[in-house]
UniProtKB/TrEMBL annotation:
Keyword terms of this UniProt record: ATP-binding, Kinase, Nucleotide-binding, Serine/threonine-protein kinase, Transferase
Full protein name: non-specific serine/threonine protein kinase
Signal peptide positions on this chain: none
Organism, as annotated: Ramlibacter alkalitolerans
Pfam family membership, one: Pkinase
Length: 484
C-alpha cells in the first residue's frame, strides 16, 4: 500500500516517499497540528504486506520495533512511535541526513581508482565503532551491509535496519520462526550460515566484506543464491585484495583478511580491536596474510572443506562478556617528572593487569609537548623506542601490543581523548607522576584522568625503593649465573 503525501496517520502528516525496498517503504513525516518536532527530522517505515510477501517482513518489523527501544546512542536512529500491528504496522524514527555506503560505492566508476587506503580505513573504523556500541549493549546487528550503513556529514556512522538483529535480553523471533540461514547472502558470516546467531564477531566479518568491496570493487564470496554457495565461506578463502588491486597496502589486506577468517575465533576479537587497527595502520603487524597475492592452494582449500563438513559451532557468550574477555589496556608512560622506581612500579602493575586478562591488548602511550624546533618524525622515533625499552621485562608473547606518541601540551586531555576514541577498558597510570610539584594548587594529571576517564583507572601508588630494585637486580644476576 502506497501512502498519499499529505495524508494523516495517528497524528503524523505523511511527506514524500524516500525509499521503496523489497521489505519496506519509507516516508518523511512531521507532527500534525503545529506540534513541534522532537528536535530531529522523522521518517515512517512501513513493512510491505502484499499477497506475495513472506513472513520475514512482519517478523523483521517486530524485531526492529523491539531493538530500537532497547538500544540507544549516536550510532542508531532515535525511536519515536509505532503503529498497531493488527491495524497498520509502522515505525516512526529519526531520519538520518547523510549518504549510505551503498550510495558511495554506486558513485564510483569502474574506470576510477578505488578509494585511498586511508579513506577506507576511516570509514571502516567508523562502522566498527558503531558496531561496538551495539555490542556493548548486548545486541548484534547481523545484517551489516553498505545499504544499512549511513554517514552523517561529520563522518559519524549510523546503523540502519535492525530487522534481522539479535538482543541477548529478548526472544529471538527470527531463530524460532524462520530458515536457519538468516541474513544478506553476500555479507553473512559462516556461523550465520549454519544458524548461529548472537556472536558479535559476525558483524566483524560483515565489516570485512565491506572493506574488501571498497578496496577491490568486488565481493569476496560473490552473492550466492543457494545453500551450497553460502556454505563455501566455511572453508574457502577469497582472492587476496592485492591480487585484484595492487594499490592495496599490506596492512589493509592484513586487516581485511583477518576479518574474513572462516572461524570466528581467528578474527579480530571485538569490533573495538578492529577499530583500533584501522585507526593505527602503522601499528598493524603484517604477516604472510597481508603479503599474499595468490589464492590459497587447492590442496589447502580441500583440507579445509573436509574439516568444515564436520564443523560444530558453539553458542557465543553474551556480547558484553566477549568484550570483557578481550579488553584494551592502556598504560600511560611518563617521559619526564618521573623516576626509575615509578617506571618499575608501572611495569609491575601492567604485568599484573595483563596476567588477569589473558585476551587483553596493550597500548603503551606517552604524551610529548610539541616543539616546532624538532622534527615530529624524530620525536616519534625516539619516544617509540623509549616505550619499547620500557616494555622489556613484560611477557607479551601472543599479545597484540602497540606504541603511541601523542603530541600535546595537555597531557591529561590527550590521554582521555585517546582512551575514549579507542574504547580503552583500563588505564594504568602512575599516581605520583606528571606535575607532582603543582598538586597543592591544581589537580594532578593522574587525578584528572581518574576523575574524567570513560573507563576504569588503576592508579599505581606503590613504587619500590631503590634498595628493593637493587636486591631484585642482584637476584636476577645470581639466577642467571646459576643457569649459565
Amino acid at each position: 500500500m502506497r501512502l498519499q503525501e499529505g495524508s494523516l496517520i495517528d497524528g503524523f502528516v505523511i511527506g514524500p516517499r524516500v525509499h521503496a525496498g523489497a521489505m519496506a517503504e519509507i516516508y518523511r513525516v512531521r507532527y500534525d497540528g503545529g506540534r513541534p518536532d522532537p528536535g530531529f527530522p522523522m521518517m515512517m517505515k512501513l513493512p510491505r504486506m502484499g499477497g506475495g510477501e513472506g513472513a520475514e517482513n512482519l517478523v523483521g518489523f517486530e524485531v526492529e520495533h523491539q531493538m530500537l527501544q532497547a538500544v540507544h546512542g549516536p550510532h542508531v536512529p532515535r525511536f519515536v512511535a509505532a503503529g498497531d500491528m493488527h491495524r497498520l504496522p509502522y515505525l516512526v524514527i529519526e531520519y538520518i541526513e547523510g549518504r549510505t555506503l551503498q550510495e558511495m560505492l554506486d558513485a564510483l566508476s569502474p574506470l576510477q581508482p578505488r578509494p585511498a587506503a586511508v579513506d577506507i580505513a576511516r570509514w571502516g573504523r567508523a562502522i566498527a565503532l558503531a558496531a561496538h556500541s551495539l555490542h556493548r549493549q548486548n545486541a548484534v546487528h547481523l545484517d551489516l551491509k553498505p545499504a544499512n550503513v549511513i554517514f552523517r556529514p561529520d563522518g559519524t556512522c549510523v546503523l540502519l535496519d535492525f530487522g534481522l538483529s539479535w538482543h541477548a535480553h529478548y526472544p529471538d523471533l527470527l531463530a524460532a520462526d524462520l530458515r536457519p540461514a538468516i541474513g544478506s547472502p553476500a555479507w553473512m558470516a559462516p556461523e550465520q550460515v549454519v544458524g548461529m546467531r548472537g556472536d558479535p564477531r559476525s558483524d566483524v566479518f560483515a565489516i570485512g566484506v565491506m572493506l574488501y568491496e571498497l578496496a577491490t570493487g568486488e565481493l569476496p564470496f560473490g552473492a550466492p543464491a543457494t545453500t551450497g554457495g553460502l556454505r563455501q565461506r566455511l572453508w574457502m578463502d577469497p582472492s587476496p585484495p592485492r591480487a585484484l588491486n595492487p594499490e592495496v597496502p599490506p596492512w589493509l589486506q592484513e586487516i581485511i583478511l583477518h576479518c574474513l577468517e572462516s572461524a570466528a575465533a581467528n578474527r579480530p576479537p571485538s569490533a573495538a580491536h578492529l577499530a583500533f587497527d584501522l585507526g593505527n595502520p602503522q601499528q598493524v603487524e603484517v604477516g604472510a596474510r597481508g603479503l599474499r597475492t595468490r589464492r590459497t592452494s587447492f590442496s589447502s582449500q580441500f583440507r579445509r572443506w573436509i574439516r568444515a563438513a564436520g564443523m560444530h559451532y558453539e553458542p557465543s557468550p553474551l556480547p558484553t562478556e566477549r568484550i570483557d574477555e578481550v579488553p584494551i589496556v592502556m598504560v600511560a608512560v611518563p617521559h619526564h617528572d618521573t623516576t626509575d622506581a615509578v617506571l618499575y612500579g608501572l611495569r609491575q602493575a601492567t604485568r599484573r593487569s595483563l596476567g588477569l586478562r589473558p585476551g587483553a591488548r596493550l597500548a603503551c602511550v606517552t604524551v610529548v609537548d610539541p616543539d616546532p624546533q624538532v622534527e615530529e618524525a624524530a620525536v616519534h622515533r625516539y619516544h617509540s623506542e623509549q616505550l619499547r625499552q620500557w616494555c622489556r621485562g613484560i611477557d607479551l608473547h601472543g599479545r597484540q601490543v602497540s606504541f603511541h606518541v601523542l603530541l600535546s601540551d595537555d597531557v591529561a586531555g590527550a590521554l582521555l581523548a585517546y582512551a575514549a576514541s579507542n574504547h580503552v577498558t583500563l588505564i594504568v597510570i602512575g599516581a605520583a607522576t606528571h606535575g607532582l610539584a603543582l598538586r597543592r594548587w591544581i589537580p594532578t594529571i593522574p587525578a584528572r584522568v581518574a576523575a574524567e576517564a570513560p573507563c576504569s583507572v588503576l592508579l599505581v601508588k606503590d613504587a619500590p625503593p631503590f634498595a628493593l630494585l637493587r636486591e631484585a637486580a642482584a637476584a636476577e644476576e645470581e639466577q642467571a649465573a646459576v643457569l649459565g
